[in-house]
Amino acid sequence: MPLKPNSELGSSPRRSHRLIRVGLVVFAVLVLLVLPGYLASRPGFFERYPSLSDQYGPWSKSTHVEAGCEGCHVSPAVGSRAAYRVRMVGEFYRSIVFRAKAPAVFSAPTNEACLTCHSDLRSVSPAGDLQIPHRAHVTVLEMQCIECHSYLVHELNPQGKHTPTMEGCLTCHDGDRAKDACTACHTAKAAPATHSGADWLVVHGTKKDDPACVSCHQWKDDWCADCHSQRPASHGSDWRAVHGEAVKRNRSCEACHDGPFCIRCHGEVPPDNFDAGLKIVE
């Protein structure tokens, strides 16, 4: 059998060495770059930071736990996702040295990210008790989802839920910027007929313990204070001069003022229509 040229004899070892070197490089890239980037991009990576515990805890129990951090806080564009993964490689190694300081890599979720999953833009709440024309808010008014959904993931509202509060709705639905009638949003609630009575502002205090009140007003613990912390409309600039006649028609001073308030001027509690059952609203 004829002998092979030396060049052919040496080609196989050189190829093997080359493949080994390529394999080592690929392995190093996987271990030092790809794997750290993957691990740092997982939501569990942020659990190590004590400063994020208040946000991580509510998220881990929310319906968005399957979406992950990247799904909401990073634009769905390919370039944005790739840039995020590259940055998280550095954050992985940074966390080894500076574990106490959480990385500032997240911006507020944009509508683009939200609409990746929430493309239906429903017009009624899941329970059917609220009319929520999402398309009118998002498409027509060009509002950001997070303007209403501030308690959606990382924080619980005062009722311990991940849903918007009525106080948030009333930021716009104040009767001026947007309509504030109960039926504008609520499908099964409207102001009772008693509320349109001419004497409702006078007699409503006697109804404050009615269990039916909470069906509409339980959304806020101190809802009475919204009105009672303000000067009544009747108390105009001439109130000191005319309040005597008003008291004769209906005495309700004690609803807001204690006894000594009247005594400061009158020397005694005026007797007209005095109702000892009236108490200061707290």
Q: Any descriptors?
A:
282 residues, 12 helices, elongated
Notes on the structure:
The protein is built from 12 helices and no strands. With 282 residues, the chain is mostly helical. Among the domains are: 6-109, no CATH class; 120-188. Helix 1 (6-41) packs across helix 4. The longest helix is centred in the N-terminal third of the chain and has 36 residues, at 6-41. The model has no long low-confidence stretch (mean pLDDT 83).
List unreliable stretches of 5+ residues. none
Order of helices and strands: HHHHHHHHHHHH
Shape: elongated
Distance between the termini: 110 Å
Helix count, DSSP H or I runs of 4 or more residues? 12
How many DSSP E strands? 0
Using only CA atoms, what is the Rg? 33 Å
In percent terms, what proportion of residues is strand?
Answer: under 5%
The major pleated sheet works out as: none
What class, by secondary structure content?
mainly alpha
Short structural summary:
This protein has 282 residues and is an all-alpha fold. Helices cover 41% and strands 0% of the residues.
Topology of helices and strands:
Blueprint: H1 6-41, H2 53-60, H3 68-73, H4 78-97, H5 111-114, H6 134-140, H7 166-169, H8 200-203, H9 214-217, H10 225-228, H11 239-249, H12 259-266
Helix pairs in contact: 1-4
